[in-house]
Amino acid sequence: MSGFIGWLHGDGQPVERAELVRLTAQLAQRGPDRRTVWCEANAGFGHALLATSDRAAREQQPRAIAPGIILVADVRLDGRDELRAQLRRRNRPLTDDPTDPELLGQAYLTWGDRALERLQGDFAFAIWDQSQQTLFAARDPLGIKPLFYARLGATLLLGNDLRVLCQHPAISTELNEAAIADFLLFDFNREPTTTSFRDIQRLPGGHCLRANPDAGRGQRYWTLPVPALRRYRRAEDCLADFRHHLEQAVRDRLPGDRAAIYLSGGLDSSTLAATARAVAPQLDLQAYTTVYERLFTDSERHYTPLVTQALQIPLHLLAADDYRLYQDWATADATTLPPEPSHSPLLQGDRQQLHRIARHSRVALYGEGADEALQPSTVLESLRGLPLLVSLGGLAQCLQQRLRPEWGTGTLARWRQWRGQQELPAFPDWLQEDFVRRTQARDRWQQVWARRMTTRPAHPWRSRAYRALTAPVWLPTLAACDPGFLNLPVETRLPFLDLRLLNFLLALPPLPWFVGKEILRQAGRDRLPMAICQRPKTALGGLPFYLALQRQGFPGEIFSHESNSGINAYVNQRLLAIAAGSSLPPMLAWGCLRPVSLHYWLQRYCGSCGCVGRSASANTVDSN
Predict the structure, then answer these.
(1) Is the pTM of this model over 0.90?
(2) 269: helix, coil or strand?
(3) Angstrom distance (rounded) from CA 607 to CA 440
(4) From the candidate CATH numbers 3.40.50.620, 1.10.340.30, 3.10.450.50, 1.10.10.10, the one assigned to the domain spanning 235-373+468-533
């Protein structure tokens, strides 16, 4: 639970210690408890600690795991007891209550690169072997922890905080126009290996990197598995195993004494809250809910108190009716906006909620991933991908429990795909033509939409879930869960993305367990109010951004400012004004706001001379 930076000179030149100290100091907002640097000859690491538990407070990083082998990491491990037992069977030296970096270091010394096959949890780390002049770095399978790197001639920089890497004097201020084009077309950069900055690359989830003075190469070490089918004679046994896996996932993500939870009153977050209360009854757990009191009818006002009263959890409500589009963005410091363009017009509400959480805890549980992992399959998909008796048995259970599984055929699916191919969304005509040509944005638009319509299922009976769990949209979703997104010391943890739980869910037959999230409803019956277990899935009562847009009008006047941030290089303002001036449906209005989000980000980025937030002092770093 920390921020870190690494700096290597492949040509043997010494690392500039003063500059490494300065860069490490910039990690203070995400790692406020202790900052330390290690520097020797041509290599150096900086680390800033975010202590989320008493055990984490004992972490000492960067740490020598063996003579001449240095580790720096942001790591939270699952299955600690099993990993510790494996290491002790190999006679590895461990303290009585080892920290996660200690376990990670001993795993690497024991199994080398293949330690990744045994590690579970959220992690990004780098290990420098001084004698071999080799660096090994890796990111957790799903990419929950970020990891970035830049190779600049003989120099290699890496770290888990994009803002800090941008501040290194060798990093160019030039942006990656392909990423900017993706943002304006799709809300985010869909390329998992690049960032919005020309010089800085992103290591994708499930990948590792090995680098030496001459070269570096990344490679995939993990792919979401298609597990073997799990069959149960009794529903009670399946529910018991589900509860075991969910409890294990929640328990491993809880800190020692206090935690927060984003609670909506829906099945996903309510199940997490009930599970946390069951596995840690003494935990100081508090719920945080965003509600709307006047904009539209919001059912969370009714359902959320039912959960917190039943579980005896304090509830904090944040009324979000009055937030304005891009509220405070014009005056925001570069360190308070996301490190890359983010299409979040109501970001101030998220920031305010996170500030409130930070006053209580440094860990927040979030139900993201449940919708994807519990995606239903159609009846005919089940018949096609499973043994006939399993499918018919599941269908019979659905009928017995009065569930309504979804029908559909391969023929209908192909027809829908064909129809979709004839009805591609209109390409935004407000993009500058020379920018479109430079980035080949039209080709990119066609390729992305074609791929979305023709992707073949990788899982025989849970293709929807598998596709949802591997979709590119996880890139911005997981980035927003990192403390570096808003530069606040809160780590958001996602129990539904626990690999052990995902493997279990992907092995189950879809009927009846994933019809209307039946597995959650059945598992929560003795922990949650019946009104929650029977609650139908409902969408939010309105679109907050759209209602705010109708109230405020399109914020196009910002482009007339003298310092227009360089948005003209990408957007034809006249054509954007025409598009935004008409009465737009919500999705087109959302697209027309992307240039506004980009403008504000560019304004902060260019306003700091291409370097995000160089103001922090370097005098607060301890060195060893």
Answers:
(1) yes
(2) helix
(3) 28
(4) 3.40.50.620
